[in-house]
Write a structure and sequence with these properties.
heterodimer; A: 229 residues; six-stranded mixed beta sheet; four-stranded antiparallel beta sheet; 7 helices; B: 389 residues; binds adenosine-5'-triphosphate; binds magnesium ion
Chain lengths: 229, 389
């Protein structure tokens, strides 16, 4: 299968004062379309940084990034915004909903960015996603009124709104109890099957990682193991 | 509704107290601007009105002082048949001015006898509304005198007076009425008759002293008077206008206008700064939301638009509230700032065009004020927000 994400020789470092602190060392990593992957590693090992580089939120100092066949390390900002909007869905560690909008509006938001008038089908899709993640009852509540688990589910539905090829999830169950963690994991799996969406999930939780198809382990900015099942 | 507009509306609603603060500062600024602007405009109008409303604004006289204007009906004919007259001149009438002396008791009083064609002059002087006793002179050898003179000389309607003319002749005139022009100089020194009586007494024959005009727009008087000079091309006459004769008043008005504009400019600058600083704080507060939106693919341009729309929406609401408040202030002023007889100190004239312009300026200023926050929102890098939680 074709690689949907392809990282070549990625180097990322931070400079503070005279100190140069390298977070990613010459990373080479690819993910196949439709695959279900996890990235694990101790705190501070560079997982979030790697995710942000894949999600073209962060820029590495060197290396090549190809998303869905398109080299993105050299393109203009407007095109980057378009790719983030259309091809990538983010689920952040701290869900990051917009407090000024309802659950339903948050889910619809990525669509509104390219077209401010949703069609009937789009509205139906938003409703379906809300159903899928199980938050229909509270969809007209303001985002801030939802519980942590409900907010995370909303963030997942939002990430799926534009039917992206890639979902990048950074510790999506980090703050949740074990039952909610189970629910969300099952949900991500279901979406992966239903829409053939590629998943890259960062997690601390080995039990979650064990249930993905591939586990990439990093330590101090280097890949130390890469196990496919 | 475009997404940036929708987000702008939500931000405004969500940060209610800040939004109210901005709207209030715009509204207060604009209301002050509108109130001061209207007040000064009305003040100027009423000042100009009292100065020249009841007098000639353009006057044709003889070039040599004290000599009459001949062929006056020809001149009137010529001006009336010119297109300028139709558009710009309201009233046109001849008048005769000649001194008379009235001896009453031991004193000899010198008066200015003014002869008018009442039909043509009434729109300028509004004689009828200034008569307090009797009527306008209806026959030859009748005069009207002022309230003050009537009192001083102990004269009343129906009495006759003996006058000594400038040509050293004696005439007997009958008092047909008493006027009050609310100006004591006029009330004590004018006498008014029809044109023929004054012509006879002053020995004018069929000539007159002057031809008087009022114009539609008083501030065009100078320009029109110059046009008339060209049109008549008559070396024996001179055309005077109120603007030249009241240069001091005009300088005063101009100074007033400039200070009014200065006040308005400073109000707008203060309002703009207030909006800009509050919106700049909003960008900081909303940096997380902006970061999320950008991470989801909101373009920089649309992000900037969110803040421009905020400025626009707040500006429109503030301008409407300010116009309401300003009108309210003006009406209150008109209602409560009154003279002892109940008439307003300054009769307020509501210039809706000025209010509209003030509103447009306020809205423009709000949008301009939001350019700085819009730019900082464009510069915001979503990674900063994502990384720092
Ligand atoms: N802006 C920055 N400036 C300097 N160092 C940074 C910056 N951002 C991250 N780092 C460092 O880079 C390293 C990797 O950070 P990263 O957030 O990618 O780790 P992580 O694996 O996601 O950790 P966690 O499991 O705690 O989320 C850390 O040591 C962190 O301190
Ligand atoms: Mg992390």
């Amino acid at each position: 299968m074709a690689n949907i994400i392809d990282l070549k020789n990625i180097n990322k470092f931070y400079i503070s004062g005279k100190m140069k602190f390298q977070v990613l060392h010459d990373i080479n990593l690819s993910f196949e379309e439709g695959s279900f992957n996890s990235i694990i590693g101790p705190s501070g090992s560079g997982k979030t940084t790697l995710m942000n580089v894949m999600g073209i939120l962060d820029k590495p100092q060197s290396g090549e990034i190809t998303i869905d066949g398109e080299r993105i390390d050299k393109i203009e900002k407007k095109r980057l915004a378009y790719i983030r909007n259309q091809k990538i869905g983010f689920v952040f560690q701290f869900h990051y909903l917009l407090p000024e909008f309802t659950i339903y509006e948050n889910v619809l938001m990525p669509y509104l960015m390219k077209d401010s008038k949703p069609t009937k089908e789009i509205i139906k899709r938003a409703e379906e996603l809300i159903d899928l993640v199980g938050i229909s009852k509270i969809k007209n509540n303001m985002a801030t009124e939802a519980s942590g688990g409900q907010q995370q589910k909303t963030a997942i539905a939002r990430a799926l709104m534009n039917n992206p090829k890639i979902i990048l999830a950074d510790e999506p169950t980090g703050n949740l109890d074990s039952q909610s963690t189970e629910d969300i994991y099952a949900l991500l799996r279901q979406v992966n099957k239903k829409y053939n969406t590629t998943f890259v999930i960062v997690t601390h939780d080995r039990r979650i990682a064990e249930r993905t198809d591939r586990i990439v382990e990093i330590l101090d900015g280097r890949i130390i193991s890469d196990i496919k099942k | 509704m475009s997404l940036p507009f929708k987000i702008a509306l939500r931000f405004i609603r969500y940060n209610r107290s800040q939004s109210i603060f901005i709207i209030l500062s715009i509204a207060i600024g604009i209301s002050v601007q509108i109130f001061i602007g209207l007040l000064i405009q009305s003040l100027q109008t009423s000042l100009v009105e009292t100065t020249i409303g009841n007098s000639s604004q353009i006057t044709i006289v003889s070039k040599i002082k004290g000599t009459p204007v001949s062929n006056w009906d020809g001149i009137i004919q010529k001006i009336s048949s010119d297109p300028v007259y139709d558009k710009e001149i309201k009233y046109l009438s001849p008048s005769v001015n000649t001194p008379i002396f009235i001896s009453e008791g031991s004193a000899i009083n010198s008066l200015l006898l003014r002869g008018f064609d009442f039909k043509a002059s009434d729109p300028i002087y509004h004689f009828n509304s200034h008569i307090i006793e009797g009527t306008l002179p209806t026959n030859d050898n009748e005069i009207m005198i002022g309230k003050q003179f009537a009192k001083d000389a102990n004269l009343s309607v129906g009495k006759t007076v003996t006058v000594f003319t400038a040509k050293r002749q004696l005439k007997i005139l009958k008092i047909s009425g008493i006027f009050d022009f609310n100006v004591s100089a006029i009330n004590s020194s004018w006498a008014i008759s029809n044109l023929q009586t004054a012509q006879n007494i002053g020995g004018f024959g069929n000539n007159v002293s002057s031809i008087e005009m009022q114009v539609v727009n008083v501030f065009d008087a100078k320009k029109i008077s110059e046009e008339i000079v060209k049109m008549l091309n008559n070396p024996s006459i001179k055309v005077e206008n109120w603007e030249d004769q009241n240069a001091d008043l005009l300088t005063g008005l101009q100074g007033q206008s400039i200070s009014s504009i200065m006040i308005q400019v400073f109000v707008i600058v203060a309002v703009t700064l207030a909006i800009a600083s509050v919106l700049a704080i909003t960008v900081l507060q909303k940096s997380k939301e902006i970061g999320i939106l950008k991470a989801m693919g909101l373009t920089d341009g649309k992000t900037g638009l969110v803040f421009l729309f905020q400025g626009l929406i707040l500006g429109i609401i503030g301008a409407i509230a300010g116009a309401g408040l300003g009108l309210g202030l003006s009406f209150m002023f008109a209602k409560f700032a009154v003279n002892s007889n109940g008439t307003p100190v300054v009769p307020l004239e509501i210039n809706y065009f000025f209010i509209l312009i003030s509103m447009i300026i306020a809205i423009t200023a709000s949008v301009v004020a939001s350019v700085i926050p819009a730019r900082s929102s464009i510069r915001l890098d979503p990674i900063e927000v994502i990384r720092n939680g």
